[in-house]
Amino acid sequence: MIGKFKIKHYINYIVISIVAVIFSVISLSGGQIDNSTLFLLEKMTISIILAVSLSLVVGFLGELSLGHAGFMCVGAYIGGKVASLLEESLGNGILTFIISLTAGAGIAALCGIIIGIPALRLRGDYLAIVTLAFGEIVRSIFQNTSAESFGGAIGLSTPRFDKKYLFIIAFVLVLATLAVLQNLIRSKHGRAITSIRDNEIAAHATGINVTKYKLLAFTLSAMFAGVAGVLYSFSNYTVQSAKFGYNYSIEILVMVVLGGMGNINGSIIAAALITFLNTKLATILTGDLAVLQNLFYALILVFIVIYNNAPKLKGFRDKYNLASFFKNIFKHKTDPSIVTDDAAKWDVVPTKITMDEILSVDITTNDNGQSDEGGKSDG
Amino acid sequence: MKKALSIALVLLFCIAMLASCGSKNYSSNNTEFVIGLSGPLTGGAGMYGTAVKNSAQMAVDEINEAGGLNGIKFKLIALDDMHDPTKIATNYSSLLEAGMQISLGTVTTGPGLEFKNLSKDDNVFFLTPSASGDAIPEFPNGYQMCFADGNQGKVAAEFVNANFKGQTIGAFYKSDDSYSAGIFSQFKGNLDASVKVIETNFTDANKTDFSTQIDTLKNCAFIFMPTYYDAATTFMYQAKDVLDKSAVYYGCDGFDGIDNVEGFDINAIPQKVTMLSHFNSKATDGPAKAFIDKYTEKFGADTLNQFGASAYDCVYAIYGAMKAAVESGKSIPVTISASDLCEILKGQFNGGYTLKNAVTGSEIKWDKTGFVNKGAIQYTIKEATK
Amino acid sequence: MELVLPTIINGLSLGGTYAMIALGYTMVYGIAKMLNFAHGDIIMVGGYIMYVCMAMGNPLIAVVAAVIGCVLLGMTVEKVAYKPLRGASPLAVLITAIGVSYLLQSLAQIIFGSANKMVMIYDFGTIKLFDVTVQVSSLITLAICVVVMVILTLFIKFTKLGHAMIAVSEDKGAAQLMGVNVNGIITLTFAIGSSLAALAGFFYLLKSPSISSTLGAMPGIKAFTAAVIGGIGSIPGAMLGGIFLGLVESISYKITAIAPYTDAIEFAILIAILLVRPNGFLGKKRREKV
To answer: Which residue of B has its CA nearest to C137?
Structure first.
């Protein structure tokens, strides 16, 4: 069924496209955009891709990955190396970019599969440690390569893409990332991934192929981290592996947490905001004051997570949250079709569910492993 | 809810955009010559950036007090990059948009590799006080005041070739650091075939317990140590009773400040500690002494090091070259674009301009590749304890 | 033999510090069932407390103050950050722990600045052991480690509080029903873990006297690796894992060709062990119950 076009489902594409078009028009018509603004846009788009892709694993799959910067590192080095090899024959154009992007994202995805396999066996803390270890291994290996291969300790010098156009490509990549990940999350696959987060055993019992979906989420997340890495290598003259440490993974995690776990638009805004603040605060907070920035991130992590997850604060949360705050402003009617998770809290027992709320229905796999696709209602 | 969020998003980008409107020739409204600098003012390398900033400011103030360049004053803008190369693009463009006409580049090598490329595109002259990577002055607009890493490795190797022919020496370096690994590879490459090197290294994650490394080097009478002072102090402390009392440590400019570390008494180390430097922090006469006195009076001795001394010289070198250009008939208006000024300065630096009686050398010249040409001193920080 | 013996002795010396930190890690993980990312940073706080106290001169006061300070800090962190999340998803707890770790690091940097500080607490000197010069402090670290390991094992096996700890680790709800003060036990666990962190900080500074705000981060992660290798939750396992890691590091540094990859090798071993034997050398096998 082709559902009714709802603007709220596409609002992020629209907003991002508008911003991209405004800047592109100004830039291409020889207008007055400072380089610092262009660099800021490049950084923002890289952060957005990273945050949205990490959000798939942390927010939707419910596993903690502390090696996201490691996947980005793979993308940046592979993409940068391919680009510097191609530069002589193909020039530093869009073709070089596309080939490098494919290579970087592909290898990063491969790493995602490799690290996704332990992900199937381990959960929670152990998985977090394995991803952290992976990130450190990748960094350590690239840091100690020979000067001819990946530059070693000095770093790999890569061709920088023309700054007038790179941010446009970056915006296109953001839209592509969103298109893939958002559609995945809104599909039955996305609901399968979310169900693994909520209760893995129950998800398994209903016939969801947990292995497959975990691997899918990990691989896609790694692939887009690789995309961000390639973008990074094209927006810098050198790729230096010291950047891709554990701290950078945490910075991405802060974006996801600040944006709200499992909220893609939130991740986008948080990524843009934090990148913006990082660059602008750097010129304001100098000397030892610069640490205040880190303190601020640490406080965000602690307070937001406690506020959102503490069992004792649940009543408080339900009463005073941002959504109900806005609801009160816009005076929404209570919709009986919205099913809240806590039956005791229902003011009105849901009596009807409107048809366009059902997007699809999945029915279990039978013994032969053939999927007995339900999906009748979205056919 | 979603609407509110999207409005916030659009607002955010609007702010970014509003902040971006400006004119292209950023120096056309200048009332002073603007010197830009990016360095680590915080973080692990913060001591270097602070020294460079303080010293450069000191030189700028002195020049301004003396009347500037024909009455036009200088202004220094220093931004913090926390030794992170990804901050350079922003810092560089912010500096340029603030009217930067000349630059001191970056304080450290990693960020400098970004800086040299960005400044090449706009043709901005830079003379870095301390980014010692061999690749820093790659383009015609880049110059170094410190010795390049390769040069330091070579000088050290020549010293070893002359004094330890046919003997075995030790080397200790940080394998994941461009500075340390860079010097070591040049050192090894220039070493006489008869000298045997026992090498051992460490990484950023393991810089606290060097028992294995010390054990490897325990029979060496001479240890080449191209590392920064923090790891060196830990090594020396742990090795003080293991190595022979007559052993000699030989460091490069990263050793600078080793005798100033809070809580660390270099005299507790029985071995001899020497370093290759262009600045004698215990100088008792000459320009170095004047610099040390003035710096200590203004900022204290905590951050006094050769990085600062070098930055002080950089400012005077730029000022001197501009003055020489004006005297030879060139016109340098205060609103000159960075690119035009770069051409004038390049002409001076490549044309044999010499900085005399400076803090880090009595006669400093540059060759056309941007490398500095001045005498190195092997400076003994402390003698062996008898 | 000439090469093997020093390598083993150095490995033991390296491993002692890891083992000490891993003991604290494994206590907290074994009983509170949470990965306390901030454990390494409690070591750092202990280091700074000793740095401040050493200005007054007496090493003994410094150590006692560090232990008391770290115990108070550990209990406060548990109370403020982790207790509200009891019953929440493990992911939330883990992220909070990372947040606390960051918080401690940035606070330390604000208070003490970013430059490294040196603090010489006490110099025990060196002795010759089989022709290898060893820091006496390394030997003391190992010895204290063994003592702590034995005390902890006895404490858990033979005291009432120890039994209560095992009960809490097995099943919090059931323990509560049997009259165990679960919150109290978990706080006690954190107190013990933090005092071990303070001790680890002391031995760490004896060996390498340089303090910075990130001092605890890497040793913390490495020690966690050691705890996992030994079997998390197992006290002798932590000791074994720490020494194993120290030996790996020492051997790897001896071979020039692979020396730069030492970190990568250690972490690769961690991943391999988790894949092949997720419960480590001495960990108990647990079955996931539905």
So the answer is: B238
Domain residue spans in chain A?
A: 7-289, 331-378
Side-chain-side CA neighbours of residue C144 (13 Å):
19
| Domain presence at residue B173 | yes
> How far apart, in whole angstroms, are the C-alpha atoms of residue B330 and residue B123?
19
Which positions 2-31 of A are in contact with B (Cβ < 8 Å)?
A: 8, 11-12, 15, 18-19, 22-23
The secondary element (H helix, E strand) that includes residue C31 is helix C4-32
Per the structure, how many domains does chain B have? 2
Domain-terminating residue out of B277, B306, B335: B277
Q: For residue B315, what pLDDT is reported?
A: 92
pLDDT of res. B125: 92
Is residue C132 less than 8 Å (CB to CB) from chain B? yes
Specify the CATH architecture of the domain A7-289.
Answer: Orthogonal Bundle (1.10)
Residues of C in contact with A132 (CB under 8 A): 221
Express each pLDDT in C134-179 by its tens digit: 778 888 888 988 999 999 999 988 999 988 988 888 888 888 888 8
C174 near B CB under 8 A? no
Distance from CA of A362 to the nearest CA of B (A): 28
A152 in contact with C at a CB cutoff of 8 Å?
A: no
Chains in contact with chain A (at least 3 beta-carbon pairs closer than 8 A): B, C
Could you tell me which of B184, B213, C218, B370 has the C-alpha nearest to residue A152? B184
Are B211 and C13 an interchain contact pair (Cβ–Cβ within 8 Å)? yes
| pLDDT computed for residue C210 by the predictor | 82
**Three-state secondary-structure class, residue A175:** helix
Q: From A269, A254, A237, A231, select the one nearest A43 (Cα to Cα).
A: A231
Residues B351 and B293 grouped into a single domain: yes
Do B193 and B86 sit in the same domain of this protein?
no
Q: Which of A236-240, A371-375, B357-361, C158-162 has the lowest mean pLDDT?
A: A371-375
B127 with B98, same domain? yes
The last residue of a domain, from among B242, B277, B312: B277
B/C interface, count of CB pairs below 8 Å: 100
The band of A311, judged by pLDDT with boundaries at 50, 70 and 90, is confident
- State the Cα–Cα distance between residues C202 and C17, nearest whole angstrom: 10
Residue B71 lies in a domain: yes
**How many Cβ atoms sit within 10 Å of the Cβ of residue C282?**
18
CB contact under 8 A, B46 and C135: no
Cβ distance B234 to C249 less than 8 Å, yes or no, reads no
Mean pLDDT of chain A: 80
Residue ranges of the alpha helices (H) in B123-254?
149-163, 178-189, 211-216, 229-239
The verdict on residue B3 lying in a domain is: no
Contact C51 B263 (CB under 8 A): yes
Name the phi and psi angles at C45, rounded to 5. -60, -45
Lowest mean pLDDT among B6-10, B108-112, C159-163: B6-10
Residue to test with chain C: of B208, B213, B220, B261, most C Cβ within 10 A: B208
Q: Which comes out higher in pLDDT, residue A335 or A165?
A: A165
**B170 and B266 both lie in a single domain:** yes
- Structural domain for B137, as ranges: 30-147+288-375
Domain containing residue B212: CATH number: 3.40.50.2300
Query: B165: exposed, middle or buried (C-beta count within 10 Å: 0-12, 13-18, 19+)?
Result: exposed
Distance, in Å, from the CA atom of A259 to the CA atom of A257, rounded to the nearest integer, reads 5
The C-alpha angle A72, A76, A81, rounded to 5 degrees, equals: 150
Residues of B in contact with A132 (CB under 8 A): none
Q: How confident is the model at residue C290 (pLDDT cuts 50, 70, 90)?
A: very low
Q: Is residue B101 part of a domain?
A: yes
Q: What is the pLDDT of residue A72?
A: 95
Chain C residues within 8 A of A294 when measuring between CB atoms: 102, 105-106, 109
Complex ipTM? 0.85
pLDDT tens-digit map of B114-147: 899 889 888 899 999 988 888 888 888 999 988 8
